[in-house]
Write a structure and sequence with these properties.
It contains no helices and 10 strands. With 130 residues, the protein is an all-beta fold. The chain has a 5-stranded antiparallel beta sheet with strand order 1-2-8-5-10, with no helix packed on it. It has a 3-stranded antiparallel beta sheet with strand order 7-6-9, with no helix packed on it. A two-stranded antiparallel sheet has the order 3-4.
C-alpha cells in the first residue's frame, strides 16, 4: 500500500497487494470505506445486514479498480496544485480521499469507478488547471 500526501493531508492510496483476512485500506473516519478481503476456499462471512443510520458526509471520495490497462493520475493537493503523478496498472486499486485528480489513459483501459454519493452531476465539479 502506497500513500500520497500533499505535505500534510493524505490525498490518495494505491494498493497493489494486501494480506489474508480482512485488511482495512481506508480509515474508519473516511466516508468511503475500502477493505481488502482475501479468504481461503470454504471460508464464510456470517449472514448479516446493517442498521439504517443517517450518515452525513461533506466530501466525495472515489475508488478506481483497474481491471486491465494503464492510466496516469495527476494528484492535486488541497490547495488545487498538482503535486504527484502516479501510473496505475492492471490490478491496481486507487482511492482518492481528498484533493483533485486528472486521468490520462496510456493504453486501452477497463476500470471500475466507485464513489460516495449522492452525486449531483456537474454541480459537484470544480475544474482545475492542468
Amino acid at each position: 500500500m502506497e500513500k500520497f500526501y500533499d505535505g500534510l493531508a493524505l490525498i490518495a492510496i494505491r494498493v497493489r497487494t494486501f494480506g489474508s483476512g480482512t485488511t482495512p485500506i481506508t480509515g474508519p473516519e473516511e466516508p468511503l470505506q475500502v477493505l481488502g478481503v482475501r479468504r481461503r476456499k470454504g471460508a464464510e462471512v456470517v449472514a448479516h445486514r446493517y442498521v439504517q443510520r443517517r450518515r452525513i458526509t461533506n466530501q466525495l471520495q472515489k475508488c478506481l479498480l483497474v481491471r486491465e490497462g494503464r492510466a496516469q493520475v495527476t494528484l492535486y493537493g488541497t490547495d488545487d496544485t498538482p503535486f504527484k503523478r502516479v501510473v496505475l496498472k492492471t490490478g491496481d486499486i486507487f482511492i482518492l480521499l481528498r484533493g483533485g485528480y486528472r486521468l490520462k489513459f496510456l493504453a486501452e483501459t477497463d476500470m471500475v469507478e466507485i464513489k460516495s454519493g449522492p452525486y449531483y452531476n456537474d454541480r459537484d465539479k470544480i475544474l482545475l488547471k492542468p
